Amino acid sequence: MYDKYRSHLIRELGQELIDASNINIRTIASKIEEIGFSCLTCGKCCRCIFGDNRVLLTPLEIQVIANRTGNIVHEIATPATPDDPEITNLIDTGGRIHTFGWMLVRKNNGDCNFIESADISNRCRIYDVRPMLCRTYPFYIQDMELHTSECEGLGQEITPEESLKIARDVIDRYVAEIGDTIALYEKFEGFDASLESVVITTSPADGKRHVTYIVHDSEGSHKAIVELNGGTNFID
Ligand code: SF4
Ligand code: SF4
Questions:
Q1: Which stretches of 80-188 are assigned E, i.e. beta strand?
Q2: Integer Cα distance of 1 and 87 in angstroms
Q3: Ligand 2 within 6 A of 102 CB?
Q4: Which of 11, 47, 74, 216 has a CA-to-CA distance to 55 between 20 and 30 Å?
Q5: 46 Cα to the center of ligand 1, angstroms
Q6: From CA 70, how far away is CA 86, in angstroms rounded?
Q7: Global pTM?
Q8: Are the CB atoms for 217 and 49 separated by under 8 Å?
Q9: Strand order of the sheet with strand 77-79?
Q10: What pLDDT score was predicted for residue 82?
């Protein structure tokens, strides 16, 4: 039953991938030009100012950032979940939380881990290797339509050349995200769900509390032990 449903989803996404690959770049570029955009480097999208500033990213993007910065994976990414680990119904019989994909680690104040401190600047410390989501912000494509997120720079003048460049990036991102989701479904092996609660462990050494996640992504499944209330993640 599950395999049939999975095959159905993969087939649907396969069709969406073909459609996405055929999106007319000039149509998207002219929409972007009509909307207008110039980044004012206010930093609001990277900080916890617009509310949800989670940056979802693929395993490949994590690797690129790791290569560039020398950071290890758990310093870059954490399981893509709501902030409160109790808010989930994807718990297995071992009390572990199952999630799909990764997001950039944030500081305790909610700002992205890679933005400079507010009293220094709004500079991104990994600008040249920042994830696709950041590169295309505030634009994204969903169900073949161009959308925008909250942004101070919308409505600003933009050149046709710049619109074309953003259009190319936003289409590439859409195609890459669909491809990544297909690979995730192909690798996903399911798990035994439970109605029990999440198991929280306490370290005898320092009293810190942890939960265990199983993160499913386009490369398979990974265990991540995450400290409650922010802090260190340990990822297998
Ligand atoms: S919110 Fe918009 S203008 Fe401000 S930094 Fe982000 S992209 Fe630039
Ligand atoms: S990676 Fe850079 S651009 Fe993206 S949210 Fe973090 S600081 Fe902002």
A1: 97-100, 102-104, 139-142, 145-148
A2: 27
A3: no
A4: 11
A5: 8
A6: 32
A7: 0.89
A8: no
A9: 56-57, 102-104, 77-79
A10: 64
Task: Check if the beta carbon of residue 110 is closer than 8 Å to that of residue 47.
Answer: yes
Residues of the chain predicted below pLDDT 70: 1, 82-89, 230-236
Distance (Å, whole) CA 15 – CA 196: 38
Calculate helix-pair angle for 160-187, 2-21, nearest 10 degrees.
160
Domain boundaries, the chain: 2-84+110-192
**What are the distances in angstroms from CA 46 to CA 138, 190, 200, 217, 225?**
11, 34, 30, 24, 25
Q: Please state, in angstroms and rounded to a whole number, the distance separating the CA atoms of residues 201 and 218.
A: 28
Structure tokens belonging to residue 213:
């996640």
Ligand nearest to the CA of 43: 1
Do the bridges between strand 56-57 and strand 97-100 make them parallel or antiparallel, or are there none, so unpaired?
A: unpaired
CB distance 58 to 180 below 8 Å: yes
pLDDT of the residue at 78 = 92
Q: Name, in order, each residue with C-beta under 8 angstroms of 182's C-beta and a sequence gap of 6 or more.
A: 10, 13, 14, 17
Going from the Cα of 87 to the center of ligand 2, the distance in angstroms, rounded, reads 26
Q: How far is the CA of 210 from the centre of ligand 1 (A)?
A: 34
The answer to whether the bond into 138 is cis (omega within 30° of 0) is yes
